[in-house]
Amino acid sequence: MRRLLAACVLAVLCGTAVAQLRAPAPVRPDALMSALSAEVMAVLAKEPGAERSEELAQLLQRRVVPVFDFERMTRIALARNWNAASPQQRLELTAQFQVLLVRTYSQALLGLRGQTLEFRPLRAAPGETEVTVRSLMRRSGVEPLTIDYEMADGPSGWRVFDVQIAGASLVLTYRESFAATVRAEGIDGLIRALEDRNRQNAASTASAADTLAPVLLLQGAARGPRP
What distance in Å separates the CA atoms of residue 151 and residue 204, rounded to the nearest whole number? Predict the structure, then answer.
């Protein structure tokens, strides 16, 4: 009986060891963002048109969106107002803010079409669970543009909880306006405002000026404290 029990334990241990050997090595956060950015830039390099826009939209939804932690991004943007929201309100806020962030991020990328993106060596201690993945967009005739990703490791792997363009936080850019809306109209008022904004964005056709607007907005925004 003891021999049988020992054999079973040994079999389980061997199976676990084999599974661990077969399991893919964890993807480094800088390698993850470098690969995703390369895919996005490859689509952006194509001639503008409905086909490219559709391909970019599909790529963002399929590959980029799952890497972003939109709940944490919404929590950062709302600050103390997040605690005042009900579970249902939090779900609605996160869903609407996700739509807004994806559009802002994609429009910013469109404004950088044809540029060279370089990822800097990752500076992180072994076992560190929050890192900054830094990249540099070289642009002809002007200073390079920094695009940094604040990332955290968790059960779903490395995920982005903020993007900083030229040192300005994509998430914190909205904090002041969100707080003002909540003070004036409450949490439900902010949800309605986000819904209206997203409907207007969906109905509008972005011009060249509109495409660069998010980048200019982020460059002029003040960088807030890291949450």
Answer: 32
Residue 85 zone, left/alpha/beta (φ > 0; ψ -120 to 50; rest): beta
Distance CA 138, CA 124 (A): 24
Is residue 73 within 8 Å of 96, Cβ to Cβ?
Answer: no
Domain-wise residue ranges, the chain: 27-220
Helix (H) or strand (E) holding 142: none
Give this prediction's pTM.
0.76
For residues 120 and 134, is the Cβ–Cβ distance under 8 A?
yes
Q: How many CB atoms lie within 10 A of CB 40?
A: 20
Task: Determine the Cα–Cα distance for residues 41 and 59; give it in Å rounded to an integer.
Answer: 11
From first CA to last CA, the distance across the chain in angstroms is 57
| pLDDT tens per residue across span 108-132 | 777 777 777 899 999 888 889 999 9
With residue 130 as reference, give the H or E element that holds it: strand 130-138
Q: What is the pLDDT of residues 60-114, one digit of tens each?
A: 888 889 999 999 999 999 999 999 999 999 999 999 999 998 888 777 777 777 7
Nearest 5°: the CA angle 81, 86, 90 is 70
| Two structure tokens written together for 139 | 């642009």
H or E, element range at 150: strand 145-154
User: Is CATH 3.40.50.2000 correct for 27-220?
Assistant: no
| Number of C-beta neighbours around residue 75 at 10 A | 21
